[in-house]
Structure formats: structure tokens, C-alpha cells
């Protein structure tokens, strides 16, 4: 068995290079086919009747007028009389028809009567939650009471961040073709290998008869792991009609029932000694994940920085709203903002530059040295020392400048993954994994690992993903686990294959297999490059039988023989510079600096892209993004992208991204990157706003209404 | 979207024939940037859609320095933005058209369509009409999420804001528009085109079913200092929170004539007559501009969550006045 490891840094030919994503040309020319582009002959279109009430019991349903409409092929009642519906836009019935318009017409002919029940859809005011609260037990560490008594400076504040949604540009959906014994699901998903069972069990069909297909996905962010209730209904319609059925959610349903991020609100008290040492933390937090209560996880509050004395208590609030799903770095963006806002206020009270305050307290983090180095580098890129002014310093004119910072952490250990590697006698190479490229560049990094190992070009590697069960199982793309999983599995498969290939060609080269190496498109004797075969000549030694091996990554394995290919745990520091117009409350991004480590960087260009995308997403949630519910009707008001406000190019300012590339981090192997850089933007931007105007805007997003309310000192969480 | 009949007339006479006596019978399609989204959500369900893009005489932009600017109702926002005479003489119009920060909407959206846009009120767009109420008769806007709603002109039931970007500068510039119907045509000031509906069957303009806006005429503005200032949450495509368009004639450094029109603060473009009158005879500086801003919102009646818009409107007026004079014309 080979010794599994990455090549030394100075020997790498492909890894770490700025390779453009292989699917880029297809995506920009429109050649790439997303699941929502799948158009099978004879496809029927599904439309759902959605509940208009936030909480109601179905008392009567009459589908006859829909059934009798020409072109309607099936009507299914999902929640019939007696069913209690707990959020608006939940599925009540579904129609399959020959085209979308007919399906829509049919849905509108279904008559449903409801007994309307009381609802709660807004959770920002804990005092109004009544019997909807689900308190968790208090957690205490050290002696917070004593620590607050002994503290030289104590600040208390209320901070909040609302529910936001995943807002995938390609909505959730599928095309299901259930013909005979087999079900083929063209699914928009981030979980290719985990999908078959989700259809098989509820539909009582052998998992082996379920195929999953996806070539490209238009966004998931943690919301596309499941088959979803609507996926199962689509499958049932296909079984009933014997035809393929297509279903993609409308935008309002996409925003409301297909994934939201929990909110987080908190009253926080923090205390420190004169020298800035943080000593005490107390927080009462609340939030919602929907009917389950939930909200942010107390486990990561306080965030990254762990004071010696802590008291915390969290209350989930059950709301009649669509259920939360994992949203890029679950819990971290919210608790990062809550923590860094409170600590920034404490630094202001201590009259300390927050940069000094954090440098002082880094021993309370798990990675003091790395954060210190990253803070210093971010300071240079931002020009923090030069630009920073204490809060409340008067400057001329209505537009004020401010700086803020926050930092974060994440795991990102590679998930379980199996790669099947085939070298054909003609020299062609394919790697197949039941994984998915959710826009992160997964297929490109797989090709790079294989190219590096074989000494071939990236374009000569064929990567197969997005099919189950055709390709070996790989994990869902969540938790930033994909890059480590697929790279380690691919590397092992390639090293194993190369070992076998060396054995086949060694006699021809008159050398021992252990003396061979693959480089520059050739198999050659180390130190004697003239004794070599081209890759193609070498592969022809396979005769008529392709060489096929599998390589696995077992996430939990710590066996030495698995080598040091992956690791877990990253840092990352971000700094924001904003301007705030104090007459209008308009916040503008000027500059944003992000320093990010992720172990061994497989492709620096794709790594940069992940950070850019994260920052834009984070800027949206800092400046404009918010789910807005009407308390009286219990319905979603901004269920389209006109008022569900995402940042555009004009809103993001200058983004400075720098990947952390020191040898120490590199030696740790590959670590996931998709999530960590999205964590700190709200904290950094919120603190920059406070620095600019000298007052805390306590709740994101920092829209003019809230900024002006803070300036008039009538802010608070409900502004 | 409800199935509909499509008609593509090439003359205004044909188009008028194709329109109905009721709104439900037919809708006019120009750029489609508003109508299509309304139809997709069943906010509009006409039996027939009359596409007027083929009517040549409603197209184009012409400028004659002595008489002013003629805007075909079908001219797009992009055509306006790119028009040299509009750029040099009517910056308030170009700034307002530029405020629609979407290349696609600028390319497709028409000037007539901008004036005829339906409210963006999220209760209206969710199918609850102009005067949304719950089952118990409670006013959903006043009891609910009214952060983007009207702070002026909201003493009646309607509290949505006019969505028109070009209405305020056109009114400030004293523009007129021509409406065509079976009975011929009539010309009226753009200021009289908008109205606040008092019942669901009314529209936000004086247009009746069977009428089409054909062209807009903006008087010569050689000596008119004019500007539009918008306050918005996003730089990318977004609806402004408040806008102000001003047109000022100066004589010996003092204001001889002024018009100040606010956008996105009332169910109609809001003509701040008192504020404009107050400017007369004064030189423009930071303080007179600020006074005009304060006067423009003196009668504001904000709702529970939109008090901040009073401040935004005040600042928009001040900055529009300063920009108009500093920017020159």
C-alpha cells in the first residue's frame, strides 16, 4: 500500500495553481444543463395548492372542479380534512397537468375550507411570545457574578439578526420519471448519494431501483439535502400517471418553505479588567427555527472567544413559519455577530482600539497564534492603524467613515467518500464519485488531484459526478466537508492505481516499481528521466483490461496508514470599512478585507471565489436581507426578489481576499472552505457602522430605518 | 398566469379598438416589466393583452430647443438616458431613469409604462388590493409592515406609494402628456395624470379602460436648473425610499420659480407647493435648501413604521435643490 500524502509544496505541479473551473465555459455559454432545464418527452407539470393561513385546520376540500378540467392528469390531496397546518404556503393538494398553466388553473379550482387558528410569526420580541417559548436550561461556567463584580468595565446591550432565507436561484425541485420498477429522480440537490433512500423508504420501492441524476445545481447553501415532501408527491404523481412529472417551487415557496436560517436575538452583558482582559459573559438569547422553537445554538455563543466566566440561557420560540434548514455555517454567522457586537461595545467603553482588545484576548481562542498573525496581516491590508478613529469623533460633513472587525472558525473535515479510478489501456483516465459540484469547483479539484498524482494535465482527466448509484457513494455537500472528502478519496485511488501501474511497467523499464515516478506525462525512473515511457505507452501495458481501483476517505479514521491528507479547523479574520450617511442612514461598503486559511489550498482561484461569494452573501445579510412577516395575516410579505433584497454589484465595495498559505497550515492537508468566510461579515460591518456613527445599530440588517433610529437614540431591537 | 388573447396592433386606432370598456377585458403591454410580473401572480388577469410596441408614432425622442422634448410613450428608459439633449437640459429625468438600476428594465421599460406602473405595495402584490384589510376589517397597512408606505397624502384609505420614477421630474418640469381614446386625444399636465384611488375599481391614474398614453411633452428647459435625488437601501435594483425632483428658475441669483415634487412618499407624486413657494426670492444655499426640505414634509403623517421616511424626504429635497443649482443647467 502506498504512503498516502500530498507532494511536497515545491514539487507540486498542479495543486495550488489558479486553475479556472472546468465547467466555467459551459456555465457562461448556457450549455450547462441544470435540473430545471431537464425536459423529458411527455412531462407533466405539478403545481401545489398552498395554505393561505399561518395556522389552520382543514375542514373541507373539494377537488372535483380541478379533476374535471381538461388536461389535468392527477390530483392528490396532501393534507385533507382534520389536518392541522402550521405555516402558510404549506402543501395542501397537488395537481399534475399537461402544462404549467393548466396545472395552475386547476389548483385555483380546488375549494378548501379552513378553521383558522391563532398564530405567531414574529419572534423578535421575547415578551410577546407567550406560551410559544421553549426555554433551555441555563449553563454556567466559572463564577460570572463574582467576575462582573470584579470587572472594571461592564456593558450591556441587546442585539439581533433576523431570519433570512437560502434564496437559491434555481429553486428546489425535480423531474421524476417513475416507469415500471425504476424511479429516476432528476433532483436539484447537494446530496446525490444520500437521496435514493429518501425516496425509497416512504415510497416503498427498493433503494436499488432509484437513480439520482444531476449535472449542475443553481445553489443549495445547506437547503438541498432532502427529497422533500414535494419531491415525494412529485414521485407519487409520476407513479399514478405513468409519465415524468416536473415540479419546481415558485419563488415565494422557495423563500418560505424550502429553507430559512434561524434568527438570533440576545441581551448580552460583558465585563473586562482595565487592561482589556475579558472576564465575564452573560447572555439571554432567543430566536426561532419555526414551529420547533430552536433559534441559534447556545453552544457557539459566545463565539470563538471563550471568557472564563459565563452564564447563558436560550429560549426557542415556536413560530408558524417555514422550518429552518442548515444555512452556510449553521449558527456561526448569527453568534459571531452577537458576540463581536457586544465585545466591540466593551472595547469602546474601555476606550480601546478593538484590534488591541482582541489581540489582548486571543488566549481565550483555540488558535491564538494564527488569529494574531491574521489580524496583523488584515490590519496591513486595511490600513487599520492609519484609518481607525475612536467612536464618536466628530468629522466634517454628514458622511462618516468607520472600521469594524470580527473573526471566525469552522471545522471542515472531509466526509466519507469513495472514488473509483479507471485507467484505460488507451491512457484515458476517469474518476467517478457520487458527489456533486454545488458551484464550489468540486469537479475541478478532483481533476487537479488526479492530474497532480499522475503527472498529467487537468484537462486529460475525466471526472464523473452527479449520478447515483452509478458512481460510488460520497457525502452530502454540507459542513464544508466535500473538498477534503473527494480530494482524499481521489488521491488515495490515484496513488493505488499508480502503484499497480508501476508494477506493470517496471519490467519494461528495467527497474523496481518503487524506483518509478509519474511526471510530465511520462512514467520514468527516478533520477534517470531518459528511461521512461509516455503515459499512453505505460497504459498500453494494461493489455485489454482497464485498471480500476477505489480510494476511500473515512472521515472518522485516524489510522496512520491513511496518511495526513485532510484536517479540520480553520480561523479567518475579516475587517470592514463603511461609510454611513448620517442624514439618510444609508450604509455603503467601502472596503472589505478577508484573510482565510483552509490548510492545503488545492486551487487558489476557486478558493478566492468561495471567499468572494461568501462576502457578497454576508454583505447582503448585513445591509438588506431579511424575511418580513405580516403578524396580522401570518403571511410572508417579501416573497419575491424585489423586496427580498440581495446585494448587487453596486453594493459590495472593494473586496480584498487573501488566502493564508504558510507552510504550517499547508502541512495540515486539505480543509473545507465553503462556509467559514460567510461567518464574520455581519459582525465586521455592524461594528464598522457603530464605529462610524458612534452608536450601536443593534439589529441587522443595517437599513436606513434602523440607522436613523439609532442616531435618534430610539433604536432598540424593534426599530 | 391566466391564459389570454394577444393582439399586436400597428396603429393607435387599432389598439384603441382592441381595448375594452372594463379593465378586466384588456391591458396594454409596452415593455412588460410590470404587467408580466403582475400577470404571473394573477395580480392582473386580462382577457386580452394589447401589445402597442408596433405603434410607430408612440416611439422615439425628439428635441427642439425652442419647444422642448417630445417623449414617445414607447421610448425606453435607456433611450432617455442616452439622449444628449436630455442629458444636458433635463438631468432630473436622466437621474430618475438611471435610478432604475437594472439594465434589463432600462432596456425594456418604457416612459409611458413608468407612468402607468401599478403600486409595489407588498399587500397589493400579494393580492390584497389597494386597501388591504383582514377578516375583522383591520387595516393591514396601518397595523402592519408599512415601512415602505406613504407619509404624505395618506389621509384617505390608500397608503401605498406611487411607483413612478419619472412622474416627479416630469411634474417638476411642467410636462404634459397626451392620452388617446376612441373620442380622439386630450392633453393634460402630468401633474393631473396621477390620482389616489378611493375604491378598488379605480386606478392610480386618470386613465380609463380604452385609453392609452401616447406621448409626453416637456417644455424647453434651457434656463431651468433641475435635479432628482433618490435615497435607497441598495445601489443595485431597488425601489427608492424617497426621492425629490426639483426644477428652479433663477433670476439674478435668486429663485424666480420653483417646483418640488417628491416620489415614493405618497400614493401620487407629491407636489410640495408650499415648499416651492417658500423658495421664491431666495438665494440657494445649504440653509434655504434645508428649509425647503423641512417645508416639504411639514404636513407629513407617518405611519407606525415609516417615520424615518420623513427625514429621508427632507434630505432628498435639500440635496436635489443643491444638486440642481451646483450641477447647473
Short description:
The complex is a heterodimer of chains A (719) and B (329). Chain A is an alpha+beta fold and 719 residues long.
Give an account of the 3D structure.
With 719 residues, chain A is α+β, with helices and mostly antiparallel strands. Among the domains of chain A are: 174 residues, Aldehyde oxidase/xanthine dehydrogenase, molybdopterin binding domain (Aldehyde Oxidoreductase, domain 4), CATH 3.30.365; 86 residues, Aldehyde Oxidoreductase, domain 3 (Alpha-Beta Complex), CATH 3.90.1170.50; 227 residues, Aldehyde Oxidoreductase, domain 4, CATH 3.30.365. In chain A, the strands form seven sheets. Chain A has an eight-stranded mixed β-sheet, sandwiched between helices. In chain A, strands 7, 8, 9, 16, 17 and 18 form a six-stranded mixed β-sheet that branches. In chain A, a hairpin with a 2-residue loop joins strand 24 and strand 25. In chain A, helix 8 runs parallel beside helix 17 and helix 12 packs parallel to helix 13. The longest helix of chain A is centred in the C-terminal third of the chain and has 28 residues. A five-stranded antiparallel β-sheet of chain B has the order 4-5-8-6-7. A four-stranded antiparallel β-sheet of chain B has the order 9-10-11-12. A three-stranded parallel β-sheet of chain B has the order 1-3-2, with no helix packed on it. Helix content of chain B is 30%, strand content 21%. The model of chain B has no long low-confidence stretch (mean pLDDT 96). Chain B contains 13 helices and twelve strands. By secondary structure, chain B is α+β, with helices and mostly antiparallel strands. The longest helix of chain B is centred in the C-terminal third of the chain and has 20 residues. Chain B is globular, with a radius of gyration of 19 Å. The chains are: A alpha+beta (719), B alpha+beta (329).
